Amino acid sequence: MQKIGLFGGSFNPLHCGHVAMARAFADELALDSVLFVPAGNPYHKAHADVGREHRWQMVQCVTELDARFAASDVDLVREGKTYTIDTVQIFKQIYPNAQWWWLMGMDSFMTLHTWKHWQALVRQVSIAVAARPGQSLRQLPAVLQDYAADALKAGSLHFLNAPEMAVSSTEIRRKIQAGADISGDVPSAVRQYILQHGLYRVVD
Which segments of the protein form a coiled coil according to its record (predicted)? Predict the structure, then answer.
């Protein structure tokens, strides 16, 4: 059975921390592939979006970095708000025999109980969470603590000590606006794309 990890995010822009996390997930869970799924409408983000096409192209830049990496525009081609439960159901219909994992960071996991139909979601897909040092289940809301206790026993929830993201998309955008170098923050192909298209610069 093929094991596939779905890695969703706004990826605005996609950076080296995302790549390191994807590799850590793939290694620890023995995934056959990690599918980057850029959000079509990052409605929960307060910052301005550079546009679906630019985010899609930046995601495609990293698929050549690892043979296990691939990308899907399933959320980009859908109109309106895109919810994880709908995204997972689409993939399960296309590949019904695969074993699916949804990959996320601890910060996102701590808000899982606020996601649309989250209880149905965790019945349809296993959850993998990258936890940072010092984070524990005791920090979770009570409803998630109960879910986590049962899911860990069932093997449908996995925590791993992923490499800590030393940079964020927000910080990268600020550095670009300040004219600072981002060479060590994003893959070289992503950096070239950002510079080529003048993304994230302050417009007078």
Answer: none
> What pLDDT digit, counting tens, does each position of 115-136 carry?
999 999 999 999 999 987 777 7
The model carries a pTM of 0.92
Distance (Å) of CA 204 to CA 48, 103, 175, 177, 201: 16, 38, 17, 12, 9
pLDDT digits (tens, 9 = 90+) for 12-48: 999 999 999 999 999 999 999 999 999 986 555 545 5
Q: How many CB atoms neighbour CB 102 within 10 A? A: 23
Q: Is 123 exposed, middle or buried (0-12, 13-18, 19+ CB in 10 A)?
A: exposed
- CB atoms under 10 Å from CB of 64, counted, come to 10
Q: Could you tell me the residue ranges of all domains in the chain?
A: 3-197
Q: Which residues in 12-139 belong to E strands, given as ranges?
A: 33-38, 69-71, 99-105, 126-130
* CB under 8 A, 24+ apart: contacts of 141-149: 141/110, 141/113, 143/113, 144/109, 144/110, 144/112, 144/113, 147/113, 147/119, 147/122
Q: Does domain 3-197 have CATH number 3.40.50.80?
A: no
